[in-house]
Amino acid sequence: MGDMAMLLLITHRLDFQPDWARHPHVTVLTLNRLSRAQSVAMVRAAGGASLPDEVVARIGRRADGVPLFVEELTRSVLDGGTALGEGEIPVAELARLIHDVGGFGLADVA
Predict the structure, then answer these.
(1) How far apart are CA 2 and CA 5, in angstroms?
(2) DSSP states of 5-60 as a string?
(3) What is the DSSP letter of 87?
(4) C-alpha to C-alpha distance for 20 and 39, rounded to whole angstroms
(5) What pTM was estimated for this model as a whole?
(6) What is the pLDDT of residues 54-95, one digit of tens each?
(7) Rounded to an integer, what distance in angstroms lies between the CA atom of residue 83 and that of residue 89?
(8) What is the DSSP-derived secondary structure letter of residue 85?
(9) How many CB atoms lie within 10 A of CB 1?
(10) Torsion sign over Cα 12, 71, 58, 91
(11) Could you tell me the residue ranges of all domains in the chain?
């Protein structure tokens, strides 16, 4: 692989500051959260076109611009879930979301 071009995409939280990110051949891109309008468009594209506007708005508020949560909350609602209660996302639902993303421990989310 010494003379091969390579693209490696790594995602991480902003508070993680790896040493390798300082190398001149590394390009760091910071992605912002989705806007409310982008979240609504994503809910609609993820199958929520038939959902009432209020439900779509609640998904957008609960997901707080995080694309993964927009998608997962939309799926949960479409599957008959109750992840849009006025309180926090139920622990069982949060654990399922975390597991789907790659098995991070609950402490990694807090």
Answers:
(1) 9
(2) ---------TT---GGGGSTT----PPPPPPHHHHHHHHHHTTGGGS-HHHHHHHH
(3) S
(4) 32
(5) 0.59
(6) 888 888 888 889 888 899 888 888 887 655 654 545 555 655
(7) 6
(8) S
(9) 5
(10) negative
(11) 34-109
